[in-house]
Amino acid sequence: MAEFSRKGVKEIIFSTLRRAVYLRIMEQIVQQIEQYKQEMQAFEANTPDLVEAFRIKYLGTKGLVKTVMGEMKNVPVDQKKAFGQVLNEFKEFAEARYNVLKEGAGEESDSNAAAKDITLPGDLFPVGTRHPLNLVRNQIISIFRRLGFAVAEGPEIEDDWHNFGAMNLPEDHPARDMQDTFYISQNPDWLLRTHTSSVQARVMETQKPPIRVICPGRVYRNETISARAHCFFHQVEGLYIDENVSFADLKQTLYFFVQEMFGQHVKVRFRPSYFPFTEPSAEMDISCQICGGSGCNICKHTGWVEILGSGMVHPKVLENFGIDSTKYTGFAFGMGVERITQLKYQVNDLRLYSQNDVRFLKQFTGVVG
Ligand code: 2NL
Questions:
Q1: Which long-range contacts (CB under 8 A, 24 or more apart) does 150-153 make?
Q2: Which of 158, 160, 202, 208 has the fewest CB atoms inside 10 Å of its own CB, making it the most exposed?
Q3: How confident is the model at residue 115 (pLDDT cuts 50, 70, 90)?
Q4: Pocket flag, ligand 1, residue 217 (CB < 6 Å)
Q5: Ligand 1 pocket residue status of 287, Cβ below 6 Å
Q6: For the CA atoms of 244, 248, 250, 252, what is the dihedral angle to 10 degrees?
């Protein structure tokens, strides 16, 4: 019993002393925490490296927060709750300050409030423009659509018949020469179409008159590339076959087209010409849009510029498709989209169309078509 009491007294004295010592230590820790908090508040970090240095010093595995937390195991039981709260608050303070520093390090200046103004409009996303040739092609299509023309498309690799034979182009016609046409080496009957007449041939093959189509598309010719010639260009051809279609219809249709395209003031003239697939044939000029007819470099001081070829469909072409040329007549025309674009927007070098220079392409922003 006595032994027990002695042991008990010792125990009480020690534990009281221990408790007093810990309370003192805790006081010091709380003071220390306040000091760390002030340090953290004053810590400036405008680079990611400094932010990381903060994290290591305060929040790292050997950081001050962890070290102070380690003291928890020595705290008397009745003090654990209160001391735990102090430590938690310290940890949260350090984390919050770390987040603030991390957010700020990416920006040039923390004090620049404008940099964080979320009401400012966003960065503009650069939108492209339609290619000038596509704009003009669409304009051409929409004018002919209003006159009742449908749009037809066909293959760019054609056979000899649809491109040449059916169009009344004789065997010895210069267009058929290897110098002018790209042939497909695997099959001498195949070639890259030299005009979109081949599409109209396919329309006449599958449809009966009345036929009223336009055929836009890319065509190929073996030319050396220069400001005035290219190995590919774009065409819109048109074909109208019905009973009683006359040259007067051709003239009025094409006159309407240029007035819609270039303006009501434009004048036209037809010059006799020759194409194997039309008879009679005519080329159409319009009054020069640059000088208004008084004479300039573009019209070579004539006041007129050529814009398309046309004519009455050759009876042989109609008969090639079983269309009775005593009952039906038709007119046809073909124009280069590059040429129309050149006249409308003063593009004087064909190579600009395929060089993809944004300084050129950007000029067509806002053109409707
Ligand atoms: C030009 C001339 C032309 C045609 C194309 C054509 C089509 C058929 C029947 C008859 Cl299916 N003709 N097309 C007619 C005359 C001229 O094009 O200088 N094009 C750039």
A1: 150/212, 150/213, 150/214, 151/213, 151/214, 151/215, 151/216, 152/199, 152/200, 152/202, 152/203, 152/213, 152/214, 152/215, 153/199, 153/215, 153/216, 153/217
A2: 208
A3: low
A4: no
A5: no
A6: -130
With a pLDDT cut of 70, the percent of the chain lying above it is 95
DSSP states of 192-213: E-SSTHHHHHHHHHH-PSSEEE
Ligand 1 pocket test, pick from 333, 335, 340 with the greatest ligand atom count within 8 Å of Cβ, gives 333
CA 205 remoteness from chain centre: 38
Going from the C-alpha of 148 to that of each of 145, 165, 189, the distances in angstroms are: 5, 28, 35
Secondary structure class of 42 (helix, strand, coil): helix
Percent of the chain with pLDDT over 90: 64
86: its two tokens: 């102090």
Residue with tokens 């598309």: 217
Ligand 1 atom closest to the Cα of residue 317 is 9
Question: 166-169, long-range: CB within 8 Å, 24+ apart, which pairs?
Answer: 166/201, 166/317, 166/320, 166/321, 167/195, 167/197, 167/198, 167/201, 167/276, 167/277, 167/317, 168/276, 168/277, 168/314, 168/316, 168/317, 168/320, 169/276, 169/277
pLDDT value, residue 155: 98
Q: Please determine, for residue 1, whether its predicted confidence score (pLDDT) is greater than 50.
A: no
List pLDDT tens digits, range 153-174.
999 999 999 999 999 988 888 7
Phi/psi for 179 (5° steps) reads -65, -25
* Local structure of residue 156 (DSSP, 8 states): S
Collapse the DSSP code of 146 into the 3-class scheme (helix H, G, I; strand E, B; otherwise coil) and give the result. helix
Establish whether residue 278 lines the binding site of ligand 1, counting it when its CB lies within 6 angstroms of any ligand atom: yes
139 lines ligand 1 (CB under 6 A): no
Query: Any idea which residue has 């020690």 for tokens?
Result: 14
Instruction: Give me the mean pLDDT over the 68-77 stretch.
Output: 86
